[in-house]
Amino acid sequence: MKPYQLQELLNARQLLGDHIHRTPLIQSHLLNKMAGCELYFKCENFQKAGAFKMRGAMHKILSLSPEDQQKGVATHSSGNYGAALALGAKLMGIPATIVMPGNAPGVKKNAVESYGAQIVECEPTLEARENTLAGIISKTLATPCHPYNDRAVILGNSTATQEILEEMDVDAIISPVGGGGLISGTALAAHFFSKKTVVYGAEPQGAADAFHSIQLNSIQPSINPKTIADGLRTSLGDQTFPVIRDYVKEIFLVDDYEILFAMKLIWERLKIVVESSSAIVLAAVLKNKQIFQNQKVALILSGGNVDLNAFFNLEISKL
Amino acid sequence: MKPYQLQELLNARQLLGDHIHRTPLIQSHLLNKMAGCELYFKCENFQKAGAFKMRGAMHKILSLSPEDQQKGVATHSSGNYGAALALGAKLMGIPATIVMPGNAPGVKKNAVESYGAQIVECEPTLEARENTLAGIISKTLATPCHPYNDRAVILGNSTATQEILEEMDVDAIISPVGGGGLISGTALAAHFFSKKTVVYGAEPQGAADAFHSIQLNSIQPSINPKTIADGLRTSLGDQTFPVIRDYVKEIFLVDDYEILFAMKLIWERLKIVVESSSAIVLAAVLKNKQIFQNQKVALILSGGNVDLNAFFNLEISKL
Q: Which of A12, A159, A187, B266 could form a disulfide with A155 if both were Cys (CB 3.0 to 4.6 A apart)?
């Protein structure tokens, strides 16, 4: 991996400019009391397309040459990255194709469709997804955009932490760990923009591949991950593993009960909707309070795309 | 009713000062598109104690003489006002007693208790609540604080709209109508601080007492209200009826399905948690689009205190 330079992070911030939202940092007295430290929640659930993924996706698109932009972008994703790439392409007026497994949830398909991207369905295996994407690329000459294992994506993601550190120099930042794209950007920004900020990851016990990858010092694939945090089931890539290895202090594991407990606290106390993959950062700090006593700790709430059908169907059934 | 003076509203704003949060006005492209106008959501769900009620409760406390403050405050409420008065009293270091029916939801009791107020339980009838409150008042000499039928409360509530109009001169504001305390403050602020802002109310079809009160030009009690919007089941009072009659253009009625549809839209698109009594304002604008075409419309999201147990128990049961 080519070492990162401060200037690359600064450039990413400038290039993204107003293409993304600057999201707020919010607080809760009660949650501070529970955690025994000062918590600052970075609300990427308020980001365009409802997740931090917009930063990396948009930065990737903006990094392409005008010629390549016109040929369009493509990815395979059943999650937030597909929607973010679709919206980024729409805002730039270029075509986007998103490969999704036929069994992807309706809400995810609707989001991508509402942003005007073309959806190509395939079998729900990684092989089918990659083959389908390769077919589209060879036909359209669109640029394949990986959700996280890509330098432009990581640099785009770094802007969330650049914003945090511009507002305040926190002692620690905790970021969720899935494929490692967000935490890599977080760790690089903390490295370049703060003298003291320590970066931690939060990973589900049922998808602890990053935890084991760091322990064994080599990428361990995520095999049969089992967690409610559907955004955190992926494996690290060769672009994210070395950054995490070099710049992240520790990865905390939490179970799904702890994640749901934290998610309820955030909805109840902060009055905001975040997904389980985001709530994991609060779960991690509540489980490791002794480390953060009286510190200023930023928690990155990565996104707010939750399928609310079950909840509202329940409410409607009561009428 | 003594006519209101501009200076009273200005004084309320100044007296409240930093005792309350200035809440944000937020937007959504998609919701604008759906409504055919520019919507500005005033997020009182982010207010202290999770609802606009904090404005009126705090202003009432601050309006008391130091001697009366020391004797404490008391109310009967199973909703947001009890919690707001409890928190206001706590912040001022004075005692508060909240009369609640024995069958009030656990989450409501917990909120009041967490703010350190004394809860006195009684039978779930209005008579029992009033008698119990009267007993407390005569014993403690605490000041009885009505949730809405009180000039100081209405003036406190007016500050939400003062904040809105300081940021922008909207064409219309829609406020929920329960006992009329919020919409009275809204209408007075619009009257004094804008030359053009028209104020509308949104009321549940199953608790349409304000609608009928205006039609018949006399207060019609809310008898057996039936609506999911539990904050909007109360009747108007002699302090709120004349303000609504004189300064509110129209009251829109919506049903519970429309309320839940709007509530889901707000959670999904704005990524914030609001209660059904708040979502009613979006339901009203979506039902009356023709009135607001291309206008700037502020919607007051009155609170975010939702019982999330059912939703999270469902999620936990899936683990």
A: A12
Q: Specify whether A191 is located in the same domain as A232.
A: yes
Mean pLDDT of A252-281: 98
Residues of chain A in contact with residue B24, where contact means CB-CB under 8 angstroms, are 24
Residue closest to A298 by CA, chosen among A34, A16, A41, A9:
A41
Last residue of a domain, one of A119, A144, A169: A144
Is residue A307 situated within a structural domain? no
Q: Name every chain A residue with its beta carbon within 8 A of the beta carbon of B256.
A: 319
ipTM of this predicted structure: 0.95
Overall average pLDDT of the A259-279 stretch: 98
Parent domain of B207: 6-51+150-301
Option in B260, B271, B319 nearest A312 (CB): B260
Chain B interface residues (partner A, CB cutoff 8 A) = 24, 30, 45-46, 50, 114, 228, 256-257, 260, 263-264, 267-268, 271-274, 304, 306, 308, 310-312, 314-316, 318-319
Residue located via tokens 């975010």: B304
CA distance A286 to chain B (A): 19
Q: Indicate if A159 and A286 belong to the same structural domain.
A: yes
Looking at B144, B159, B192, which one is the last position of a domain? B144
Residue B77 lies in a domain: yes
pTM: 0.96
Sequence-separated contacts (24+) of A101-109 with Cβ below 8 Å: A101/A125, A101/A128, A101/A129, A104/A78, A105/A78, A105/A307, A107/A305, A107/A307, A107/A309, A108/A78, A108/A79, A108/A82, A108/A83
Q: Give domain status of residue A318, yes or no.
A: no
CATH number at residue A90: 3.40.50.1100
pLDDT of residue B126: 86
The phi and psi torsions of B110 (rounded to 5 degrees) equal -60, -40
The residues pairing with A121 across neighbouring beta strands, listed in sequence order, are A100
Residue A36 lies in a domain: yes
**Is-contact B205 B228, C-beta < 8 A?**
no
State the nearest Cα–Cα gap between B273 and chain A, in angstroms.
Answer: 5
Q: Are residues A122 and A222 in the same domain?
A: no
How do residues A32-80 score in pLDDT, each as one tens digit?
A: 999 999 999 999 999 999 999 999 999 999 999 999 999 999 999 878 9
**Pair (B214, B117) in one structural domain:** no
Q: Is the pLDDT of residue B263 over 90?
A: yes
Residue A233 scores a pLDDT above 90: yes
pLDDT band at A310 (very low <50, low <70, confident <90, very high): confident
Give the number of domains in chain A.
2
Tokens of A316: 């409607």
Cross-chain Cβ contact B304/A271 below 8 Å: yes
Nearest CA in chain B to A226: B319
Q: Do B190 and B219 fall within a single domain?
A: yes
Q: Are residues B260 and B172 in the same domain?
A: yes
Q: What is the mean pLDDT of residues B125-151?
A: 96
Tokens of B203: 């009321």
**Chain A interface residues facing chain B, Cβ-Cβ under 8 Å?**
24, 30, 45-46, 50, 114, 228, 256-257, 260, 263-264, 267-268, 271-274, 304, 306, 308, 310-312, 314-316, 318-319
Residues B260 and B197 both lie in one domain? yes
A208 and A244 inside one domain: yes
Q: Is B319's CB within 8 Å of A272's CB? A: no
- Work out the percent of chain B whose per-residue pLDDT is above 70: 100
Would you call B257 and A316 a contact, using CB atoms and an 8 Å cutoff?
Answer: yes
Sheet holding A143-144, edge to edge: A118-122, A96-101, A73-76, A143-144
